[in-house]
Design goal:
248 residues; 8 strands
Length: 248
């Protein structure tokens, strides 16, 4: 589990920011209908962010994260992975997500990313980034190889290695957008060796990138409850915003 159900992003709320938000159901080109949450600033800066959640799919943490982006002028959309197997309705906290995670495919996730990108483009936004966490971090980087015309792809503690299918390290040569990787130094499953292999593959492929490892930080450190790693969270958030501004 990446976050507790009552976790929140470790990002200050901007008091008085004018933001609207909507629960949506989007449709991918394969007919899949899936839940999404859009947060729109009253004064958008022309940059869009597609948020790829952790293994539990869309829930409060990522809706709040979309709002934090929107308070800063970014139009943000977080989406759910499980439309094909669980439908497009909102779910309760007791949702058993793992059987649905096991039925996802890289192709299905990227079809849903494409629908999310198309939604933002329909709002007149043409500079679009993905940002993902854990399962979503891996798939955010893979989105850079997905033909979506992204401006960049950001991932927090994603696994870049081969698993049931080729991972970001394998597909570095296909990536068409800059990469930001924000990794946890004390992650038991994503080792320093795996991060080094990803870094090397991106370098060899000529992909503009930055891979940052936070020493001692655990998987899912980007969480308001993780007070011991507040400095890492603050630095990561600053790097995300700087990356968006640099590559937009």
């Amino acid at each position: 589990m990446c976050f507790e159900l009552d976790s929140l992003p470790p990002i200050p709320v901007i008091s008085g920011a004018a933001v609207s938000h909507d629960d949506l159901v989007l449709e991918a080109k394969d007919g899949n209908r899936f839940a999404a949450f859009a947060a729109t600033p009253d004064e958008p800066n022309g940059i869009g962010v597609v948020i790829l959640p952790d293994v539990r799919g869309l829930y409060r943490f990522y809706e709040e994260l979309a709002l934090r982006f929107a308070e800063r002028g970014y139009t943000a959309l977080a989406f759910d992975y499980f439309g094909r197997t669980a439908g497009g309705d909102k779910r309760g906290d007791d949702f058993e997500y793992m059987p649905h995670v096991q039925q996802t495919t890289p192709e299905g996730v990227q079809a849903d990313v494409a629908a999310a990108v198309d939604y933002l483009r329909g709002l007149g936004i043409d500079r679009i980034f993905t940002v993902g966490f854990c399962f979503g971090g891996r798939n955010s980087w893979l989105a850079a190889a997905g033909g979506h015309g992204l401006a960049g792809a950001i991932g927090f503690y994603g696994n870049p290695a081969t698993r049931d299918s080729p991972g970001p390290t394998d597909r570095a040569g296909e990536m068409q957008a800059p990469i930001l990787a924000l990794q946890a130094g004390d992650d038991q499953n994503i080792t320093a060796e795996l991060n080094a292999e990803f870094d090397r593959a991106l370098t060899d492929a000529g992909v503009q990138h930055e891979l940052v490892t936070y020493d001692g930080a655990p998987h899912s450190f980007f969480d308001r409850k993780q007070e011991d790693f507040a400095d890492a969270s603050e630095d990561a958030w600053k790097r995300v915003l700087a990356f968006l501004e640099q590559h937009a």
